[in-house]
Amino acid sequence: MSDSGTPTPRVPNRARLEALGHAVDARHGEPRHRQRVKRSRAKIALVTLATVVVVIVAAVAGDYWYINHLIKHVTITSESQQYNNTENILLVGSTTRCGLKHQNAAYGLCSQGVTGVNSDVVMILHLNLTTNQVSILSLPRDLFVPNARVDGANKIDAALYNGPNQLVKAIQEDFGIPINHYVELNFDTFAEVVNVLGGIKMYFPMSVFDAYSQLYVRNPGCIQLDGTRALEVVRARHLQIRFPGDGTNYRSWPQEALSDLARIRRDHEFLKVLADAVKAKGIANPLTDQRLATAVARYLTVDQGLTTTALLSLAEHFHGVSVSSVPELTVPVVLVETTGGYLYQGYYYGDVEFPIDPGVTQTIDRFLDVGSNINTMDGKPLPKGSSFTVSVLDGSGTPNQAHVVAAGLRRRGFVIHGIGAATPYGVREETVVFHSNNSAASLGAAQTVLHTIEGPAVMALGRTTAGATVTVLTGSDVSVIPPPRTPTTTTTAKGKHHHPPATTTTKPVTQITVLDPSAVKHDTSLSAPTDVTQALQPWDPRSCGPNGTEGP
């Protein structure tokens, strides 16, 4: 969960507002049945806070009608289809202050104008009910995507301003990740879980400070955290670190880079520690069960299909999952390296990130455990490029770019149905692959095209041109991955064909030889792609070992 809310326009008092934790919206200018059920004695071993919460609520003994009554249910409309006996649960950390049961000055007060609603933590939990495999995918809050808002492009964390359904739509329309269930937590939920557990311990290898989340660890070591201090840890994304030789003035300590991604890295580690703490408590103590479930349920929002029966079923099914076996992935991105924040259509959005391909499509396929030729929305084979039409529009103003990209797509077997130019729908640096409707077939055609794109790229629901099934709006840094080279054959004097040994076959390459190499501009304002898995850094908090030592 974050100290800031939706993207913030440049205003004179911005620093003061951010220091207070205000969320300012760049688009709108607003401060950003009584039934006894047999106890499940499943052990907690899943590694996200939302999963811990879900299982706690499901496994509690006693009055399920009462617990279910406390939970807030929302109606989620999803176009996704379940396949391969899997489920995807969207886990959201909301920054709402006005939605808190008890106002807390440490988070910022609704009465003082801290009214932003954002999804600063966006994780997706993939559950395979056949193999009992679990995986987690994080989407950075600063991803700039076309369908973030009802009215267009924005950071993905801003989608929740239009309600949970808009966030679900953005993830499905722009990334092709099917969402089956929705779980939303807030600051109160988080703090209550930690407090009911009696707090948790984390080891801090170095002194750290964050002016926004109010985290301040003066002395390294194993530290007991209550709910409020634990929240300071997971909200920290402006971390300053005291390195050897630095003085005691924490405000002069150097600040880490990649703040958004660094927080995801630390949150993944925190959730492992939290899951271990819940597992150590066990679900066999009726008093602990009831306190946890009652404390958590009143701050929990889930979709209408996630009933207590469904929760109990998940708790029983995945009780044996090992924390260490769960892959924790983050979609790779490139950062826009600008001074003063990213400017788009008259608004400053601060730091933004773009999804980078082919890394994102490969990561999503890995997360969902499907092949690269599979439609991630319905599990069916992707259509061949020759089975639908594609139009290409120059969206960056680079000379001849649309023709170069169209030529590359033709070499991949696509049928080109129109070439032109247009004003960028999303952003100049980002290539957008449009599909015209929410059907799995339409989105599958866009996925087929996206799998051939290299550079900052994303799908989007929107109007296509020239009657084409899919429209590619090019960004300033785009290439088309050439088709794999096929083995050549030689003919002997007797007319027999001989294939060369397999070792001589050329593997697919990732750079295209374009008709005019100068036509494709590589944008120097973008960083190198980030890693899919984020390793802990020397200053990151982690688990405690025996006698207050550093844990694994």
What does this structure look like?
The protein is of the alpha+beta class. It has a domain at 353-519: Alpha-Beta Plaits. 24% of the residues lie in helices and 21% in strands. It contains 12 helices and 26 strands. The chain has helices at residues 14-19, 49-59, 64-70, 164-175, 187-196, 227-235, 259-281, 286-297, 308-317, 359-368, 401-411, 440-450, and strands spanning 72-74, 86-94, 119-128, 134-138, 144-149, 152-155, 181-185, 200-204, 208-210, 215-217, 221-225, 240-241, 301-303, 328-330, 333-335, 343-344, 347-348, 353-357, 389-394, 415-421, 431-435, 453-461, 470-474, 479-480, 490-491, 497-498. The strands form 7 sheets. Strands 15, 18, 19, 20, 21, 22, 23 and 24 form an 8-stranded mixed beta sheet that branches. The protein has a 7-stranded mixed beta sheet with strand order 1-13-7-2-3-4-14, sandwiched between helices. The protein has a 3-stranded antiparallel beta sheet with strand order 10-9-12. Helix 11 links the parallel strand 19 (389-394) and strand 20 (415-421). The longest helix is centred in the middle third of the chain and has 23 residues, at 259-281. The chain is globular.
